[in-house]
Amino acid sequence: MRKFWNTICALFSLLKTILTPFKSEGNKQFLIFLLFLLISTMFWFLQSLNNKDNVNVSIPVEYVNIPKDIIFTKEPPSTIDVVLRDKGINLINYSLGRVKPIEVNFSELTKNRGRIVIPHDKLLSIVDGEINSSSELIEVYCDSLVLLYGDKKGVHLPISLNSDITISSNCIRNGAIQVTPSEVELYADSAISSNIKSVETELLSLHNIADTVVANLNIKPIEGAKIVPEQVKVIIPVEELISKKITLSIQSANFPKDVSVMTFPATADVEFLVPLTLFPEANASLFGVVVDYRQFKKNISKLPLRLLKYPDYIKNPIIMPDSVEYIIDKKIVNIEQSGILSE
């Protein structure tokens, strides 16, 4: 009560300070009116605090005496919405969230194969036993409280990435998509867990990505089961492609032992796109450009060039020139018709 009157005195002091500039003869009656209006408002407020009224309240719920080998497969409700009736001064505390949590004792509940149902009348009894003695419980909005649980002998399951990903035309995915962790633990009743072989992520939809992407992705929930962890990290390694050109000696392929070939020119350029980090590794030793005897036909002036080998991480290789003039030399027969005749 002393705090209340101290607050009233402080308000009057503040009001006096504010109204000091208005202390003129013409304003005295108006100031007196404001003063009495303020006093009457305060008395009305004090009177209303003694009247009873209803208020909607969300009461926190705490679950106690949960065995160590039990885990909730679906997060139980953390609050229960109720209607309480009490004096205004008590209702203010409820409205400000000053509500004592109610306790739900796990050991006192009836369990049925991973499922506990607390009916409406039982909820009324639990809440009514926890609220202030001055408060009257009018209604509990929840028809029943359903708790789903399983034992902590989780099942390890692989993760299936659900994705729709496209990469920009001037980039490449440089390596496999990484999902961390690669497995999750699933806790559920054996009737549920025995039918589940893997878990799936939510859809990851990315288009025309031009750089490495790191994303946190939720696991799709499964009714009646708890998945740990509920979120995984996905890394999609993407690199920019840059142009590179190397010069190679032209080799021969599939020619008989008694036949040799000479090409003009003797070298060819290969231009391609390569990931930036692999640029130094893409050297001439990894490539091979050849003329193939199986493509030889009489009376043709040029043989086409073929890229016999190249690293799988390069893109769009182009051989320049794409064909060359040649001379065929046969060791047994001195002269053979070719693009150009030679001994």
What does this structure look like?
The model is unreliable at 1-5 and 333-343 (pLDDT under 50). The termini are far apart. Strands 10, 18, 19, 20, 21, 22, 23 and 24 form an 8-stranded mixed sheet that branches. Strands 4-1-3-6 form a 4-stranded mixed sheet. By secondary structure, the protein is of the alpha+beta class. Helices cover 18% and strands 44% of the residues. It folds into 4 domains: 2-49; 56-151, Beta Complex (RNA Polymerase Alpha Subunit, Chain A, domain 2); 155-236, YbbR-like domain (RNA Polymerase Alpha Subunit, Chain A, domain 2, Beta Complex); 242-330, RNA Polymerase Alpha Subunit, Chain A, domain 2 (Beta Complex), CATH 2.170.120.30.
Summarize the entry for a quick read.
This protein has 343 residues and is an alpha+beta fold. The chain has helices at residues 2-19, 28-49, 88-95, 120-128, 190-193; strands spanning 52-64, 70-72, 79-87, 102-105, 115-119, 136-140, 144-151, 155-160, 163-167, 171-173, 178-180, 183-188, 199-200, 204-209, 213-218, 225-228, 231-236, 238-253, 259-264, 267-275, 288-292, 302-309, 315-320, 323-330. It is elongated.
